[in-house]
Amino acid sequence: MSEEVNTLWDAKKPGISVNLDTGRIAIHRTTLEIMGYPEYYRFLLNLRKKQLAIQSCGIDDDGAHRLPEIKDRETCDVNSKDLIRLLYRSCKWKNTMSYRIQGTGFPEQQTVNFNLDDALELNEMKRTTEAEGEA
Description:
Layout: E1 15-19, E2 24-28, H1 29-34, E3 40-46, E4 51-57, E5 65-66, E6 75-79, H2 81-91, E7 97-106, E8 111-115, E9 120-124, H3 130-134
């Protein structure tokens, strides 16, 4: 019998979810609120410290991404397989799991920092192979 551990997620705190299978980073609405729903944002990564930040920026800043209009959704989805592969490999995350990370907001700098060592396993991804499809 496996021992299951439940962790409470505080929906009022900023967060992101990362999924290798879909190549998607979901930036939670609370993260965007702290950043002031910027027109442009960028990711800042420090692998040595295992820190990821999302920061408001200008159109001409390195790594700038335009924030799409968010209507009734709770997340802004960003597709970046290369960044996600780098995160999984560097953090030694399980390729079969998706992860959620709670962040620390700095509204005055329009930045949210994430300690990658604090990633929570969210759920196992359903992977299908050609062999499974033939069965």
